[in-house]
Structures are given as structure tokens and as C-alpha cells.
Write a structure and sequence with these properties.
Strand order of the largest sheet: 3-4-6-10
CATH superfamily: NAD(P)-binding Rossmann-like Domain
Order of helices and strands: EHEHEHEEHEEHEEHEHEHEHH
Shape: globular
Radius of gyration: 20 Å
CATH topology: Rossmann fold
Length: 268
């Protein structure tokens, strides 16, 4: 967005370091400075909410909605980043944005509640709020390559289990497409075209690195952490058809194969 002439500001917790934002050309706005926050919101055309919800709900909503009202701000677009975890386990079946929500984890349930709260704020305040449901995000510095090089990658197998994912650049492109075509109450899955087993991704990444893939480990023998167990407790295929149809968006990396190759090309 900066390359297209946008200026970018980001909210900052009171105890956080502003230097990394400034290095990226991003103006830091501290959440404990109500005047600065209201001023930034009054000028904003688009607002992206990324913070994970906690027991009290979405911290972005709790911080921004009063400031929006105080500033009498009406941005063209507000986007809330949610998760495909709101769908729960579908035993490998397909889900669309019209599928009923059936979150199976506390985190997924909180995301579903935050989605509802943001959409209600949009209706109540006359704001154009959209929700984006995301699977696992990968990209440079955050992919199977790092785990393989560190010797930490595992090929855990579970018959019939698949996951969707998205390259970070495709996520950004999907959000930019929505900013260009805002729709109040829009809900979109942003994901690639090919849900796949995690073991396949690890094996393919190992091949690109010229490494032997780690041995396969059955799910029941993997001795996973509680967080990883929640991840493997769900299997579904997520459709991105609505985002393609309504936003004119297409993933540049329609599967993990193109995405991983692009990351490796960037490193070289």
C-alpha cells in the first residue's frame, strides 16, 4: 500500500518499542494517547484490526470503537482478521462463508464472538466492516524451511487430514482488493486453492532444500503439545470462491508448491 502512495500508521501498546515501526516508515500511535489515536482515526481511510481476542473480547474493538466515536470518524473500510478455526472440524469436507460456525477451541470461539461484535459495530455505527477468515499463514522467514534447517520439522500423518494455508503476500493482496472494493458486512475466506496434508508440505520443502524428508510419525505417536493437538483435531477444506468472485482476487501462489519455491528464490 505504501508503494501506491498510502501512508501507514499503527497503534502501539504503551510499553512497546516504536523503532521497528519507524524503520518501516510507519507512524506509531500509542494507545495511551487518546488525542493522537482519535486524530489518526479521523484521517484514516482504511483500518486493519489484527489483534487476537482475549477473555474480554477483541482488544482492537475495545480500543478503537470509543476513539472512532470520539473522532466522529467514518473510514471507507475496516477489516477484521479472523481464523478458519471458527468452522471447527469438518472431517476433510469443504466449508464456505455460508457454512455454520462450529468452533471447537476457546480461541476459535473468541474469534467467532469478535467477528460478531465487529459486524454489529459496523451495522450500528454505519461503518463498512469486513471479516477475513485465515488459515495458517506462511512466507519468508516463516515456513517449513526454518523448521527443516533447525532439525525440528516433523512429518505427522493422520489419514485423510488436510489443512488450508495462505502465503502472506496473497493475504496482503486479498486485503488490498477488498479495500478497493469495500462491502459492508462482507465475510471472506482468504486461502490457497489446494488444501493439503502437512506431511506433504514438509516432504516437498525438504526436496527443494535437497534434504531427506523427516520420517513419518503417526499422529497418535507424536506426543504433541496441547496447542498442536488442537491444530490436528481439525480437518477441513476451505473454499476461496467468494473472494475470487467478489474481489477479483486470485492467489499468486495457488498451492504450497509455488509459495515455497518463491520463498526459496527470494533467499537465493
Amino acid at each position: 500500500m505504501q508503494a501506491e502512495g498510502w501512508t501507514v500508521a499503527a497503534s502501539l501498546r504503551p510499553d512497546a518499542d516504536a523503532a521497528p515501526l519507524l524503520a518501516e516508515g510507519v507512524t506509531p500511535i500509542r494507545l495511551d494517547d487518546p488525542a493522537a489515536l482519535a486524530g489518526a482515526l479521523a484521517e484514516a481511510q482504511a483500518i486493519l484490526v489484527t489483534a487476537a481476542p482475549g477473555p474480554e473480547g477483541c482488544p482492537g474493538l475495545l480500543s478503537l470503537v470509543p476513539a472512532l466515536a470520539r473522532a466522529q470518524a467514518f473510514p471507507d473500510w475496516i477489516g477484521y482478521l479472523s481464523t478458519t478455526g471458527v468452522y471447527g472440524d469438518r472431517h476433510g469436507g469443504w466449508v464456505t462463508e455460508a457454512s455454520p460456525l462450529a468452533a471447537q477451541s476457546t480461541e476459535g470461539a473468541r474469534r467467532a464472538a469478535a467477528e460478531r461484535d465487529w459486524l454489529e459495530v459496523g451495522r450500528g455505527m454505519g461503518l463498512t466492516v469486513g471479516v477475513f477468515r485465515l488459515p495458517g499463514i506462511y512466507g519468508p522467514g516463516r515456513s517449513a524451511f526454518e523448521r527443516l534447517r533447525a532439525g525440528e520439522a516433523r512429518r505427522i500423518t493422520a489419514p485423510g487430514q488436510v489443512f488450508s494455508r495462505i502465503h502472506v503476500d496473497d493475504l496482503a493482496a486479498g486485503l488490498a482488493a477488498s479495500i478497493a472494493h469495500p462491502r459492508a458486512g462482507g465475510v471472506y475466506n482468504l486461502c490457497d486453492d489446494e488444501p493439503s496434508a502437512n506431511s506433504e508440505v514438509i516432504a516437498y520443502a525438504a526436496g527443494l532444500l535437497g534434504m531427506a524428508p523427516p520420517p513419518e510419525v503417526a499422529l497418535e505417536d507424536a506426543n504433541l503439545s496441547s496447542i498442536a493437538q488442537r491444530f490436528y483435531a481439525e480437518s477441513k477444506r476451505v473454499s476461496n470462491a467468494r473472494a475470487k468472485a467478489e474481489l477479483g482476487w486470485r492467489p499468486a501462489y495457488p498451492s504450497y508448491r509455488e509459495g515455497l519455491q518463491a520463498i526459496l528464490d527470494l533467499e537465493n
